[in-house]
Write a structure and sequence with these properties.
- It is a single chain.
- By secondary structure, the protein is an alpha/beta fold.
- Helices cover 45% and strands 10% of the residues.
- The strands form 3 sheets. An 8-stranded parallel β-barrel has the order 3-4-5-6-8-10-11-12, surrounded by 4 helices. Strands 1-2 form a two-stranded antiparallel ribbon.
- The structure holds D-xylulose (XUL) and cobalt (II) ion.
- D-xylulose (XUL) is lined by residues 101, 141, 186, 188, 232, 234, 268, 296, 307, 338.
């Protein structure tokens, strides 16, 4: 078969002194870090929508890139050309996973029965392509935000008919995910939220979202889906207020509605920052609750208030991300590049440069995070910071063996406590810089 990216070779690892733009400087798949290969630490995934569908359109202008891949857009030939392009792309970069929405795969027909027939056809084609490769599906999802019928949400909609239609799409997307062997299934609540409380029954909407999730879990398990369901939190955009605001909010929701055994979180860097947190914050909150499942790898722009979905180049952020991931013992999911080329980066080379950048950034983050852990100074500082809790009293409190009255008596004998000890933030930040730039 003729290559689509004819001018792009298989991307080799050449090391940090290489100036070849079509080579990895840090991502060395077989290099062992803390006892595991880089490729196992970093199950990278290609996002079908950004890489094979999005072509630079924004609110003010049409496509800049040509993503026809030699076929007429809006046809099944084009859907197949995207599969061909995607698999060639993944093979050339050594990417082992892909993620998709239902409508990324085929042109949507007016009649959903025809859309579903096309989905059957394309998933057969993808399965055929997967044969003889080690490329797999990381997660699937249904797009329940693009079509005007979802203007008031899918699980949260006011229309019971739209709700049933959403359920139909979800069932099909689950069928496809299972057919393609997906490790996970994502719920991103794109329009599950509100513009104004004047017309919104928040409690009613949230209960209905939970019911749809329960039905999806029941159905998924009944067809043999053993992977994780994920909520992908995001505070706003497209809605003014989205219910899955951040990791803490999503965890509370999952627990309230008894979904926490089947769900974990898919944390996207740019969503965490839109919620006013660091990426690391939402990773930590997920991890300490046993719910850090997967990551949408990208970054935002602090000067802009929206979801820019940039390819990650911030090594500091990637290092702190990998620090959390290593401490979590890895992910059940992977690192999906929910990232897009900037509009003026419209060539085929740019598609590759973007993924090389993202993969190298996370590889460097992994190397540096492992060095931080091996160095041990951060861990030792945190251990020492809480060392007063190793006392008899500290142990009693931790074991729920004391009372407010007993603490009162203790404090009365003690008098005023000493200051709790310096937080040493600047010293610790210096250690991070020292290791990053060693
Ligand atoms: C939107 C977003 C989605 C989800 C999947 O901000 O991140 O692409 O990842 O629906
Ligand atoms: Co995402």
């Amino acid at each position: 078969m003729k290559e689509i990216f004819e001018n792009i070779p298989v991307i080799p690892f050449e090391g940090k002194d290489s100036d070849n733009p079509l080579a990895f400087k840090y991502y060395d798949a077989d290099r062992v870090i803390l006892g595991k290969k880089m490729s196992e630490h970093l199950p990278f995934a290609m996002a079908w929508w950004h890489n094979l569908c999005a072509a630079g359109t924004d609110m003010f202008g049409r496509d800049t890139a040509d993503k026809s891949f030699g076929a007429e857009k809006g046809t099944m030939e084009h859907a197949k050309a995207k599969v061909d392009a995607g698999f060639e792309f993944m093979k050339k970069l050594g990417i082992k996973y892909f993620c998709f929405h239902d409508v990324d795969l085929v042109p949507e027909a007016d009649d959903i029965k025809e859309t579903n027939r096309r989905l059957d056809e394309i998933s057969d084609y993808i399965l055929e392509k997967m044969k003889g490769t080690d490329i797999k599906c990381l997660w699937g999802t249904a797009n329940m935000f693009g079509n005007p019928r979802f203007m008031n949400g899918a699980g949260s909609t006011n229309s019971v008919d739209v709700y049933a239609f959403a359920a139909k799409k979800k069932k099909k997307a689950l069928d496809l995910t299972v057919k393609l062997g997906g490790r996970g299934y994502v719920f991103w609540g794109g329009r599950e939220g509100y513009e104004t409380l004047l017309n919104t029954d928040v409690k009613f909407e949230q209960e209905n979202i939970a019911k749809l999730m329960h039905m999806a879990v029941d159905y998924g398990r009944s067809i043999g889906f053993t992977g994780d369901f994920y909520i992908e939190p995001k505070p706003k955009e497209p809605m003014k207020h989205q219910y899955d605001f951040d990791a803490a909010t999503a965890i509370g929701f999952l627990r309230q509605y008894g979904l926490d055994k089947d769900f974990k979180l898919n944390i996207e860097a740019n969503h965490a920052t839109l919620a006013g947190h660091t990426f690391q914050h939402d990773l930590r909150i997920s991890a300490i609750n046993g719910m850090l499942g997967s990551i949408d790898a990208n970054q935002g722009d602090t000067l802009l208030g929206w979801d820019t979905d940039e390819f990650p180049f911030n090594v500091y952020e990637a290092t702190m991300c990998m620090y959390e991931v290593l401490k979590n013992g890895g992910l059940t999911g992977g690192f999906n590049f929910d990232s897009k080329n900037r509009r003026p980066s419209y060539t085929e080379e740019d598609m590759f440069y973007a993924y090389i950048l993202g993969m190298d950034t996370f590889a460097l983050g992994l190397i540096k995070a492992a060095e931080l852990i091996e160095d041990g100074r951060l861990d030792r500082f945190v251990e020492q910071k809480y060392s007063s809790w190793n006392s008899e009293l500290g142990k009693k409190i931790r074991n729920n063996e004391t009372t407010l009255e007993e603490l009162f008596r203790y404090a009365e004998e003690m008098g005023a406590p000493e200051l709790p000890g310096s937080g040493r933030q600047e010293y610790l930040e210096g250690i991070v810089n020292n290791i990053l730039f060693k």
